[in-house]
Amino acid sequence: SALRTLLNTELPVVAAATRFIEEPPGPPVRATLVAKITATEAETQQAAVAAIKKFIASVAGVVDIYQSDEANIGRVHYRFDHVAAAKLGVSPAAVQQVFAMLDGRYEITEFLARDAVEYTPMLLTFPSEQLQSPNFINTVTVMNNVGEAIPLQSVITLTHEARPSTVYFEDAQSLSYVTAEVENRSIVYVTIEIIKRLLRGELSGYLVTDWNLWGLQLTTEDGE
User: pTM of the prediction?
Assistant: First the structure.
């Protein structure tokens, strides 16, 4: 408690990106307070995670709230443009070879020595300084069917997307976690309060349609 207060006072920017990991009571679990959220549709699940995370934050004693899939990572997606490639005479295999070199896995031959007994492949790749450039694809070419160098970007469409850094599943169903620690209060009373408030309909936009000691089923206003 004192450390949280000190960090929030003296280093608020650092505090916003800091999680305090505590040894939870009882058997090993992810955190003292754990909510597992699952839904049929990914969008419904993400909306529920955001709502429940905000709801839990309003409960007295709850600190260090964390969402398992909030740390998205960027991904670049390259799609082969069949129409453009056909016009320019570029084959999918030629593009695959270029991307294999980007990963450093394009094998061109095997190194053979008189006394060698182990398999030693020779790999062709691009210089590391070129790969580190975010615009490297603008400088790479691919050979077409008549030996002409065609810019790789001419036959590739590029998109950027964000995806969770970690995805969890339970019983083949996508699962999200909202976890937290409890400060100056018993986890038992915190859990009881959360259940009671959910049953009273305090989670805006959601209605509890079924529940037992193992979990609650909530339905949105749209019937999800």
Answer: 0.57
